[in-house]
């Protein structure tokens, strides 16, 4: 059983992009599955 919700989110594995397989630089609990490079988003 999970001790606390904080521990749960701290222990989530890093997300990987579904297109290129690289580790994503986003919050692990977000819903996105494609990295910024694969969807061609650039910082403004």
From TrEMBL:
InterPro entries: YhfH-like (IPR025432)
Pfam families the record matches: YhfH
Protein name as it appears in the record: NADH pyrophosphatase NudC (Nudix superfamily)
